Amino acid sequence: MAASRSGRFKVISAVVLVGLFVTIFLYAAVPSKRVLSYIQPSSDKTDKKKPDKPKPHPIYKPTPTPAPPIVDNFPLAVDAREPTDLPPIPSWNAPPTQHVREYTPLLIGFTRNWLLLQQTVVSYLTAGWPPEDVYVIENTGTMNANRNGNLTLQNPFYLDYRRLTEVFGVKVISTPTLLTFAQLQNFFLHTAIENNWDYYFWGHMDVVALSREDWDDVPDEGGYKSLYMRCVEDMRKTVEDGYLIDKQNHKGTWAIRFYAYDRLALVNRYAFEKVGGWDVMIPFYGTDCDMHERLTMNGLIQKPGHVGLVYDIADTLGDLLRLYRRRPAKEGETEPAHLLPEDERGSHEWEKLRDRLNSMSVSKNNGDRNTWQASQEGGQGEPYYRDPAGFEKAIEMWMKFGQDVMAEKWGHHGCNLRGVGLSAGDEWRVKHDW
Ligand SMILES: *[C@@H]1O[C@H](CO)[C@@H](O)[C@H](O)[C@H]1NC(C)=O
Fold this sequence. Notes:
Layout: H1 2-29, H2 33-39, H3 45-49, H4 75-78, E1 106-110, H5 114-126, E2 134-138, H6 161-167, E3 171-174, H7 181-195, E4 199-203, E5 207-210, H8 227-243, E6 254-259, E7 264-268, H9 269-274, H10 287-297, E8 301-305, E9 309-312, H11 348-368, H12 388-410
Parallel strand pairs: 1-2, 1-4, 2-3, 6-8
Antiparallel strand pairs: 4-7, 5-9, 6-7
Bound molecules: 2-acetamido-2-deoxy-beta-D-glucopyranose (NAG).
Keywords: Membrane, Transmembrane, Transmembrane helix
């Protein structure tokens, strides 16, 4: 009797156990309702039952009126295949036939607006920068799409890779993914480390650099110099004055040389490494302030220098040929403008160019600032396409967020950190002062 009762018990236990396993297995194997909603088409029976019930979502924003199409600002370069298809660099600005003994890399970051980038690059080349030293850091987040020529001019992230490398002769390095301003600055630093550069120049992509053709020289300084040669000269002075001034021969007593506010800067890589680079937790505005304050807190020198004109500009000249400084056509001359002989240095034409750039820069700083980024709207259907207005909006949100991080980091709103008694090492340790 006892044996048969324990046998029945075993059978019942086995049945219960198997049942439990089956239940657990079914739970694990059958996707939940939420998972099903991802893998099944969203239209189900309830939609068919009530066909006239309006969908509450999505309700679209009004479609913006389309912007006029972008036209290339350097028509001669559109058909150019090699550097000799363009006019020569103005003779008074031509880079030295033999490169100066120092390397002089100039890094220019690019995310949007080809016209402004092209204008910036051409202005540095016509101001004497050796093309092989100009590095466009393509930060479009479109992988190899530009190198393959997959994007079109109407796409905000378009860049003419072939023209930059084959016609202008400059270099293009693409970032592995879209970087924020702070990350891009660290990418510059990374590029310097990888290339063994002790220092590098970096410039904004919405500027026009112009040599001071009217610069009256002190005779013993050797006469007129291009903006590039003045950069070389100032770099030599900077390196001599502060680079190895430390008694222990430590590098890095100077950090930055600023030209024309911060539109062009010479950076001492070692100084930036010493303070741990840029804080990528502050993605855009505010991160420059954080960086420059930390450099000063650590006793690293930042000083302005003078090398020429660098205008901050949100628009483009009608034709970049103007920067090549050809003589204006005389009455009756019918030759194409690019085949005309060179103008004279410091001519009336140069003054007109300078005044034009100056007024463009004034209008940018009177409210046109940051309008240029979102002026291109095409590229739908091209690789890595993003909605241009959405991209702009998201960046604005990130900018705001970064300022909150900055305030939290230092316990203080705004840029005046040392002014309120903060110093190196206070990061994240100070209570809010608001
Ligand atoms: C991009 O360009 C390459 C090279 O021209 C071409 O092979 C490829 O099919 C293009 N891809 C797209 C998505 O257009």
